[in-house]
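Please predict the structure of the following assembly.
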Amino acid sequence: MLEHMRDYYTPGEIAERFDLTLDTLRYYEKAGLLRRVDRAPSGHRRYRTDDVELLHLIRCLRDTDMPIARLREFAELVRDGDHTIPERLEVLQEHKNRLDDRIAELVDRQGAIEHKIDYYLGVLAERAAETAHTLKDVN
Amino acid sequence: MLEHMRDYYTPGEIAERFDLTLDTLRYYEKAGLLRRVDRAPSGHRRYRTDDVELLHLIRCLRDTDMPIARLREFAELVRDGDHTIPERLEVLQEHKNRLDDRIAELVDRQGAIEHKIDYYLGVLAERAAETAHTLKDVN
DNA sequence: CCTTGACCTGGAGCGCACTCCAGGTCCCAT
DNA sequence: ATGGGACCTGGAGTGCGCTCCAGGTCAAGG
């Protein structure tokens, strides 16, 4: 249990945990998705628990194609404190709407592609039947 | 009925129909997604019914994030004739698998985002309740 | 004859999200 | 003290998918 309550995480640990490269992690920081991260005396970054939590959400939103710029706006709201919760909510709800639409679109196209696959399968089946027929005639 | 059987369509018509720009249409042709399209004596493009059909599928596959390079491969198979149907089938099936996975991922993230929205809504509700309570005390 | 509008060409440019690199520091183990 | 590994910096480069542009042609209408 205590292992899970560590105060700090190294860049390598974070990169592995979120399947990001160190470069991407630094890029996110530069882009303002993360606050200026803490440092060890060596100068190496040390991520805190709340960085991890925010990264979790960031990952989730990026995976659903929220652009970096929008993500930065959201991260700024988080940094500005609890009074921005209504605005954060608005961002998330708007994103969810987009996502719902996108999923609906993908499902729709999925159907069309399936249909095309079935069509091709039908062509192949017919072709196979014809070949069988020919063989029957010949033999 | 006869209107729908026209032999040729102008670039403008096609662009509108598929919600693509003329630039994109030309880009697709250069990229090998479409064969070298027919021309009017003036040099203007004239799209045939089978261009339209292929574009339909291309649009569907692009909308589901098939990369241009893969689309070009597919288009080449189409140009190579009916004997490539098994390979086309493979491309489509592999793409459908990717798409299924992608949809599953999005739905998963959708749930996480919804959860976060609910969390924020909870915070706001609690805050509203506290305010009401304070007012009650004061009044 | 002149304008307008649709389209043509080749090639440059753009926005996004990384990704890579050179050259450096720090710390630990052999 | 030497080597290796993890990490640092600023800045350049990459890949993708368009998107824009200059300068032109062509056909129809006034």
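Residues 85-138 of chain A form the longest helix (54 residues). Strands of chain A lie at 8-9, 38-39, 45-48.
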